[in-house]
Design goal:
Distance between the termini: 43 Å
Strand order of the largest sheet: 3-5-4
Strand content: 15-25%
CATH topology of one domain: Arc Repressor Mutant, subunit A
Order of helices and strands: EEHHEHHEEHH
Largest sheet: 3 strands, antiparallel
Oligomer: single chain
Number of strands: 5
Number of helices: 6
Shape: globular
CATH class of one domain: Mainly Alpha
């Protein structure tokens, strides 16, 4: 089942004491004319939403979201991670990781085992999860190529590096 491609478009920015609060509405991606936004946060989120639409379009038939496939990709590279380690590696909070892991586990793509104490969970791909990663990887790589061709290879690499560097610096401060 193909997922409709939507983007959340800025309706009205509101400034409160140097903070930008943005109101969004859901619109179909084909009808979007993006506006320059007033702050770094909104602009990064805008770019992330547009990129997510591109990547999720190649995952549509799998029923997975980009966030869920990212979990599978990480576990394919490094198995037996705790929920906290996985959340930290991706840069999401633990409750979001827990929700996404539960959804992927429900599909039979990952399995959890008890860690060093009864609250800790360690995660690994199931054989079905390994097959899913192998099956979806060519489509994911095609999305990578589409991203590079639209932005430019050098610009895409610079953007990736700049975003990683910014995230690392913001986490460290």
């Amino acid at each position: 089942m193909a997922r409709q491609q939507f983007l959340y478009l800025l309706v009205r920015p509101v400034r409160l004491d140097n903070q930008c609060i943005c109101m969004y509405r859901r619109v179909e991606v084909t009808k979007v004319k993006l506006k320059s936004l007033p702050c770094y946060c909104a602009t990064l989120r805008q770019a992330a939403r547009v990129a997510t639409v591109l990547y999720e379009s190649v995952l549509a038939d799998s029923g997975l979201y980009a966030t869920q496939y990212t979990l599978l990709q990480v576990l394919a590279r490094v198995s037996d991670l705790t929920t906290t380690e996985l959340a930290d590696a991706i840069g999401i909070d633990q409750s979001t990781a827990t929700r996404n892991l539960a959804l992927v586990k429900k599909r039979g793509l990952i399995v959890d085992t008890r860690g060093s104490d009864r609250r800790e969970r360690r995660w690994a791909l199931t054989p079905a999860g390994e097959r899913t990663v192998r099956k979806l990887n060519p489509a994911w790589e095609a999305a990578q190529q589409a991203f590079e061709s639209r932005i430019g290879r050098a610009e895409a690499a610079a953007l990736k590096e700049a975003c990683h560097s910014a995230a690392s610096k913001l986490v460290a401060s």
